[in-house]
Amino acid sequence: MTTPHPDHDRGLEFDLSTLLSRRRSLGLLFGAGTAAALAACTPGTGGGSASPSSTATASATATATETTTAAASPSASATSTVTRAFAECGVEIPEETLGPYPGDGSNGPNVLEASGVVRRDIRSSFGTSTTKAEGVPLTVTLTLLDNANGCAPLAGAAVYAWHCDKDGKYSLYDSGLENENYLRGVQEADANGQLTFSTIYPGAYNGRWPHIHFEVFESMSNTTAAGQVLTVSQIALTEKACKEVYATAGYESSAKNFPNTTLTSDNVFGDDGGIYQLATMSGSVAGGYTAALNVTV
């Protein structure tokens, strides 16, 4: 696909001080995961970052429900109420497709071999380019929970996250962006199973509800090892936040595309309306948004 950047020769092994081995392909993975359901999300902490909290983990193991508004039709006024269960043991995040633009070596370029991919702020490209993706700020916090261990925090696990820019385009793949690798990054979960990415609000493109892709690995050392993915899934963003963001300058194409696909017609979230992958969100266009999700694996 794209000729590797010269600065990426030593890859992720350099970032982790020889902790990681070279990645091959994730093509052999699928069949290991099972689709199941996950639960509602840990509330974000606001501002530019989210900090770990014992409260987040406790809420993840509680049996409770909440209602949330999700898009049910292209109409701006048409919404439906769905019930979302807080994460509980035995309820895992649904397994989803990587999509055509993973950048993990399974379909063309492999950003996971690049030095610099381990980072919290994923807004800029790294390596030979420093182009920064512009858009409304978004802070994403995931809380990883171990289903086989009573939903204990999955400390030390790693997440690779990626998503499109404000125009619905993907770095490494779309025309003119082949030499960019922004909006992609890897983070390690802390003792509370939490990790955070600083990014921008993704755009909307036809056929998909606004979303963020992610892969969960057992450890940082497995992020470049074939067959070591625990799960592959996606985060669904809320209708309210999408409408607010897409009404702003710079998101004109998203404003046109967003009404064309609903959570129930989306080819990924449509089977259940995204109730187990819908982030808990807060914030504003002026101050930026936070999105949080509990991920039980």
TrEMBL record:
GO molecular function: ferric iron binding; oxidoreductase activity, acting on single donors with incorporation of molecular oxygen, incorporation of two atoms of oxygen
Sequence ranges assigned to domain Intradiol ring-cleavage dioxygenases in this UniProt record: 132-208
Designated name of the protein: Dioxygenase subfamily protein
Taxonomic superkingdom: Bacteria
Gene3D superfamilies: Aromatic compound dioxygenase
Lineage: Bacteria, Bacillati, Actinomycetota, Actinomycetes, Micrococcales
Ranges where the record places region Disordered: 43-62
Signal peptide as annotated in the record: none
The entry's keywords: Dioxygenase, Oxidoreductase
PANTHER family cross-referenced by the UniProt entry: INTRADIOL RING-CLEAVAGE DIOXYGENASES DOMAIN-CONTAINING PROTEIN-RELATED, PTHR34315
